[in-house]
Design a protein that fits this description.
Blueprint (H helix, E strand, L loop, with lengths): L3 E4 L3 H7 L7 E4 L12 E4 L4 H11 L4 E4 L6 H14 L2 E5 L12 E4 L2 H8 L5 E4 L17 E5 L9 E5 L6 H11 L3 E5 L8 H9 L3 E4 L9 E3 L2 H13 L1
Parallel strand pairs: 1-2, 1-4, 2-3, 4-5, 5-12, 6-11, 7-8, 7-10, 8-9, 10-11
Helix pairs in contact: 2-3, 5-6
Length: 242
């Protein structure tokens, strides 16, 4: 029996999981909502690095490891590729194409947090869409800045930061209202490539707001990489029919 271990993290992963039968496993790190309406098995939590994942793969007799984690979850992707090597199974990956700047965009790529903070100095009303990472730096906010953070869930802010809990997809009119209401003068974003969160880039373009883009990490090579979910689903169907 063919068994697939699907490592989730992007929106497309849930759509893939919905095509899987009860012999397959959908694995989540535990951040965000856990689906309860799937036919396949759902596992929540970590594995203890590449070696732990390899042991799980061997114990469960998995023959295909499918990495559909976030483009910035580099550690998980590297663990998946290494675990596949250690256990002698195939590893595939869904790799979302990165967004590309359009005419009128003012994108400024930054490599890490320290470079981001330097690039942020001229601005006063930033909108962070990096997830939870900025929460570790709330005590470092300069006196002339007020931060708006958007994350999947609401977290405590402080007198110079408000945290908005919201989940995509986001509508462009709502993004326009957010930029106007908060008087956003710079957007900070990962280059996730997701259509669900792309409207913020359109609004930044309309308003002439610069975008500080966190550089994508390098991801490991695997046996097959897919940019299209339809291509991946076709390949999965062929794999499980063998």
């Amino acid at each position: 029996m063919k068994r697939i271990l699907l490592l989730g993290g992007v929106t497309e992963a849930l759509a893939i999981a919905r095509t899987l039968g009860p012999e397959h496993i959908y694995s989540l790190a535990g951040i965000g909502r856990v689906p309860t309406d799937l036919t396949c098995q759902v596992r929540v939590g970590g594995y203890g690095g590449a070696e732990g994942l390899a042991q799980f793969v061997q114990d469960q007799r998995i023959d295909l490891l499918l990495d559909a984690t976030h483009p910035y979850a580099a550690a998980i992707s590297h663990n998946a590729a290494r675990a596949a090597q250690l256990s002698g199974i195939t590893c595939w990956a869904l790799r979302r194409p990165a967004w590309q700047p359009q005419p009128g965009d003012d994108w400024r790529e930054v490599s890490d947090w320290s470079e981001l903070i330097q690039a942020l100095k001229p601005f006063h009303r930033p909108l962070f869409t990096l997830g939870r990472e900025p929460l570790q730096h709330l005590d470092e906010i300069p006196a002339d800045q007020f931060w708006t953070l958007r994350a999947l869930d609401v977290y405590p802010g402080n007198e110079r930061c408000e945290v908005i809990g919201a989940r995509g997809p986001f509508l462009i009119d709502d993004e326009r209202a957010l930029f106007e209401r908060r008087q956003i003068d710079v957007l900070i974003s990962k280059n996730s490539g997701s259509t669900a969160t792309e409207p913020k880039l359109e609004v930044a373009r309309e308003r002439g707001v610069p975008v500080l883009v966190l550089k994508r990490p390098a991801l490991p090579a695997v046996e097959r990489e897919f940019e299209s979910m339809n291509d991946l689903l076709a390949a999965l169907a062929a794999h499980t029919d063998r």
